[in-house]
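Appendix B, example 12.
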Amino acid sequence: MEHTLLFSLFLGIVQGLSEFLPISSSGHLVVFPWIFDFPDPGLTFDVALHAGTLLAVFSYFWRDWLNLFRFRTDMPEYSGNSKLLLFLIIATIPGVCAGILLERWAETIFRHPLLVAVTLFVFGLFLFLSDALGKKTRALGSSTLRDALVIGSAQALSLVPGVSRSGVTITAALSLGFDRVSAARFSFLLSAPIIAGAVASHAKDLILVGTSPLFLVGAFSSAVSGYFAISFLMRFVERVSYRVFFWYRTALASAILLLFFLRV
């Protein structure tokens, strides 16, 4: 099946929802074309979709960014920790290093359905356990250098499809005792520099195809769906938990395994 505008719209929506819900955007972008017999759109198209989610996270958290940079001081989450912006920068470093070292693998052997199935389940289980066992008593303002290093190192694992960047960073934050909302906020703020770096690293390729309607439709739909995914998750985890996402990940991993062995 050829790469059509409808296909781009579909993958953009998938990207936007799965980037911020802890269910792995890269895993879905590998698995859905495989399940529905679409052509793999490739890493450059993935990066174009990430540009859309970058717009979403900046749009939703614009007040947070102004407070982090001290252009505004109207959010108590940031009034007690003047080093939080520095911690976010430090937490980005492990992911950047992993991206540089493992980019070739990310484009090839990491994009295998069986690997996605395993990582969906295993890291979903980690999320379930950290949500069930974490103390959930710490607010964002209590962040330390140690937190930044732990969460940043966890983020580096998300280069492997199925791990989920938001899922693994939220898991790390919950294991460090952060409450559910603060864990999500730290994860989403941390996503901005790493996504921006991925987009910048493929800027040349994106410029070459930037006027393509396929890429524009995908980026726009990922931005809109990403914004709504952030809004939903921030409200959802305040009232419920992250554990429901483990069951979704387990169901998807099971479906991948079943389909893979039926096709053998």
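Residues 134 and 175 are 5 Å apart (CA to CA). The chain has a mean pLDDT of 88.
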